[in-house]
């Protein structure tokens, strides 16, 4: 099926061709997990999916040059997040060596009651990501500390990871300094603060429900079942081997301050790592050569106390390479699907469902979820369905802030649930828990899209032009809508 298009090429794959690429990807993931029982070999499944997509694209009339361009376009999107991820590995190692993470775990174990632990993790991570605008920075700093505290309190790692991610993505969605918040507002042509106010209607209730659920689950950890001798050994081991004190909180304070001042995330991670490394050398007495080794290969704790060593041997640039390679391969497939118009062809089929607000919002949620799954990027999942559906919102006179909110209710929050996506790969790398394990505990990511769909079904908070005192409505469409 050939029509002209304003994109690089006038070639369009057939619906069947596009659907076959997606079908094969689904089959590979299903086979990998349910038939082979391997949930950590996602890279190879994705490479097979890229090969099949490339063959179908060539049969549709694309040249190898077009295919390579699509793959490189995906890698370009991955470049900055993957550089940040490299520095996260360096930061975690330097923060263990400097005593920052040992101190956070040490004080956390003494202050946090097991009953309120999961609830506290959600709230603290929500506040931290609201201030920094970055769920990734929050997960790499507070998240890693909460994983350690959870281990000390005998809370299953998957539950802790679910609580950390639920809190972290709340701030990432609502914060005016978050990249995804600004991107969604831009895509839908909404005023940033209209967009944030609109999101409070879906993300606010989702956070409250998540916090309540974690509070109730926490009741099961009343502290009596915790083997305190294990926690005591952990505390003693940390105190004997690390200089624990308030000075150790300097690196996270520096990171929070820089992130709040809107310094780029990559620069924040580099500075945070250097501050940690300087403190490790000055205060913990780590040799400079050892410090450089830790930053590259990961910190190795050698206290002889198993609980301390397993908790504090982590981080390092090389430790992140599994995740980084997954990010590049996942986004290579996403870039290929986007540049060969496969995603567009599939989304156009959904276009027929958008003649009324209920169908439009449900279609938007499903399209963003699907794009997240198949493009491996929340950014592509915000941009493509968002831009394709703006004309439909405009036609129905629904305010831009509803469109921008729906972009985030479906694309941003579900990103951590896709194991081969940027978000999933990142959290798996930083928190050391498989996405398949934490998926069911990441309540905010599951509840938010459900609330968006319920609002659509019952026509709640779906504002039309003139119903709210919004700063703006859509810009006048140029020659054609979109």
What's the gist of this structure?
This protein has 482 residues and is mainly alpha-helical. 71% of the residues lie in helices and 0% in strands.
Termini Cα gap: 22 Å
Proportion of beta-strand residues: under 5%
Shape: globular
Unreliable runs: 1-8, 477-482
Question: What kind of oligomer do you see?
Answer: single chain
Number of helices: 22
Radius of gyration: 23 Å
pLDDT averaged over residues: 87
Number of strands: 0
The helicity comes to over 70%
Query: How many strands, which pairing sense, and closed or not: the largest β-sheet?
Result: none
| Helix and strand composition category | mainly alpha
InterPro entries: Na/H_antiport_NhaC, Na/H_Antiport_NhaC-like_C, NhaC_Na-H+_Antiporter
Membrane topology: Multi-pass membrane protein
Keywords: Antiport, Cell membrane, Membrane, Transmembrane, Transmembrane helix, Transport
GO cellular component, one term: plasma membrane
Describe this structure in words.
By secondary structure, the protein is mostly helical. It has a domain at 78-314. Helices cover 71% and strands 0% of the residues. The protein has helices at 15-35, 42-59, 64-97, 100-111, 117-132, 135-152, 157-174, 179-187, 192-218, 228-241, 250-260, 265-282, 288-297, 306-312, 321-339, 342-350, 357-375, 378-395, 400-412, 422-431, 435-438, 443-458. It starts with 14 loop residues before the first helix and ends in a 24-residue tail after the last helix. It holds the Pfam family Na_H_antiporter. Residues 167-459 form the Na+/H+ antiporter NhaC-like C-terminal domain.
């Amino acid at each position: 099926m050939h029509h002209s298009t304003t994109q690089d090429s006038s070639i369009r794959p057939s619906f069947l061709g596009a659907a076959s690429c997606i079908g094969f990807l689904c089959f590979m993931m299903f086979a990998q997990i349910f038939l082979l029982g391997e949930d950590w070999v996602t890279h190879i499944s994705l490479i097979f999916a890229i090969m099949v997509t490339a063959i179908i694209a060539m049969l549709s009339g694309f040249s190898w040059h077009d295919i390579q361009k699509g793959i490189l376009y995906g890698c370009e999107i991955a470049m900055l997040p993957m550089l940040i991820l490299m520095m996260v590995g360096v930061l975690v190692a330097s923060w263990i060596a400097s005593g920052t993470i040992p101190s956070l775990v040490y004080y956390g174990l003494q202050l946090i009651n097991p009953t309120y632990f999961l609830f506290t993790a959600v709230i603290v991570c929500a506040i931290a990501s609201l201030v920094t605008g970055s769920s990734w920075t929050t997960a790499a700093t507070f998240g890693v500390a909460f994983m350690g505290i959870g281990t000390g309190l005998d809370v299953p790692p998957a539950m802790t990871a679910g609580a950390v991610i639920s809190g972290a993505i709340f701030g990432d969605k609502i914060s005016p300094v978050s990249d995804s918040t600004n991107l969604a507002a831009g895509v839908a042509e909404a005023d940033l603060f209209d967009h944030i106010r609109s999101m409070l209607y879906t993300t606010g209730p989702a956070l409250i429900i998540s916090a309540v659920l974690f509070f109730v689950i926490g009741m099961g950890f009343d502290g009596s079942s915790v083997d305190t001798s294990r926690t005591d050994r952990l505390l003693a081991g940390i105190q004997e081997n690390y200089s624990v004190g308030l000075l150790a909180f300097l690196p996270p304070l520096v990171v929070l301050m820089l992130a709040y001042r809107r310094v780029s995330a990559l620069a924040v991670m580099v500075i945070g790592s250097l501050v940690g490394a300087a403190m490790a050398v000055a205060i913990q007495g780590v040799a400079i050569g050892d410090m450089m080794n830790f930053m590259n290969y990961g910190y190795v704790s050698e206290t002889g106390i198993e609980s301390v060593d397993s908790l504090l041997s982590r981080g390092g640039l090389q430790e992140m390479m599994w995740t980084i390679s997954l990010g590049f391969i996942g986004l290579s497939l996403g870039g290929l699907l986007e540049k060969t118009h496969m995603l567009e062809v599939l989304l156009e089929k959904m276009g027929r469902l958008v003649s009324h607000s209920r169908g439009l919002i449900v279609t938007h949620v499903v399209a963003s979820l699907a794009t997240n799954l198949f493009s491996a990027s929340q950014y592509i999942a915000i941009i493509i369905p968002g831009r394709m559906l703006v004309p439909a919102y405009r036609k129905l006179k629904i305010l831009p802030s509803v469109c921008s909110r729906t972009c985030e209710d479906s694309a941003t929050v579900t990103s951590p649930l896709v194991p081969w996506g940027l978000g999933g790969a990142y959290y798996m790398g930083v928190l050391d828990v498989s996405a398949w394990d934490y998926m069911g505990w990441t309540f905010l990511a599951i509840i938010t899209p459900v609330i968006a769909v319920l609002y659509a079904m019952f026509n709640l908070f779906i504002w039309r032009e003139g119903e709210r005192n919004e700063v703006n409505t859509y810009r006048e469409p140029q020659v054609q809508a979109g």
